[in-house]
Specification:
- Helices cover 32% and strands 29% of the residues.
- It is α/β, with parallel strands linked by helices and 218 residues long.
- The chain has a domain of 152 residues: P-loop containing nucleotide triphosphate hydrolases (Rossmann fold, 3-Layer(aba) Sandwich), CATH 3.40.50.
- Strands 5-6-7-3-8-9 form a 6-stranded mixed β-sheet, sandwiched between helices. A 3-stranded antiparallel β-sheet has the order 2-1-4, covered by helices on one side.
Length: 218
């Protein structure tokens, strides 16, 4: 039986007087990659922020564990800190665990390099490593491949899939690169104007072109 590690029930949320989410319900099982799909402004990022307690919900219920990490779309790293300092900035550890070096070789080869001197792809690897330092049960990712070269896009999705398989970490992710995301996603939710309008299962992802047309055609 699948274990649900994160559940949102009838969430209404927004910013000040602007309501963005309307009765949003979804769940993520342990070890799943779940995609949030929809056009810009559909409310995808707001779901991640309310789950990460960055904004308050107006009503509804969120059932989750204590170990959730959130990687926002921009400002991936602290530019004037080294790679090492960026990863351990939360203070959970004083040194990078060996298993993170295996996932992200960049951490060892550029350990003492200032983050501002890294490429966008390297910075994203550092941001993911920082999110994993305290062994989260759920990883919230907002556009992890945005602005990256094709090589780093492949690397990012390889790592996400590896994290899920080897660490049994659940991932709730927003990503504009649909073809890459749907290759590793188990399920997905399509949003329109702050509402969940469709749930997609892995069998639905076989026709990726149809999924893409469904989303852009909303």
């Amino acid at each position: 039986m699948e274990e649900t590690i994160l559940r949102l029930e009838n969430i209404n949320a927004g910013y000040k007087d602007l309501q963005v989410l309307f009765d949003v319900s979804l769940h993520v099982n342990r070890g799943e990659v779940v995609a949030l799909l929809g056009q810009n402004g559909a409310g995808k990022s707001t779901i991640l922020k309310v789950t990460a307690d960055l904004i308050n919900k107006k009503s509804g219920r969120i059932i989750k564990g204590e170990h959730i990490s959130y990687v926002p779309q921009s400002k991936r790293v602290f530019p004037n800190l080294t790679v090492l300092e960026n990863v351990i900035v939360r203070g959970y550890v004083k040194e990078i665990p060996e298993n993170l070096y295996t996932l992200f070789p960049i951490l060892k080869t550029k350990k003492n390099t200032l983050a501002k001197n890294l490429s966008g792809g390297e910075q994203q690897m550092v941001a993911l490593a920082r999110a994993l330092i305290d062994n989260p049960e759920v990883l919230l990712l907002d556009e992890p491949s945005l602005g990256l070269s094709p090589k780093f896009v492949q690397d990012i999705f390889r790592v996400i899939d590896q994290i899920r398989k080897e660490r049994n970490v659940s991932v709730l992710v927003i990503e504009h690169n649909l073809m890459s995301l749907l290759q590793i996603a188990d399920r997905g939710y399509v949003l329109e104007k702050g509402r969940v309008v469709k749930e997609l299962r892995s069998t639905d992802f076989k026709n990726k072109e149809a999924i893409y047309k469904t989303i852009v055609g909303i």
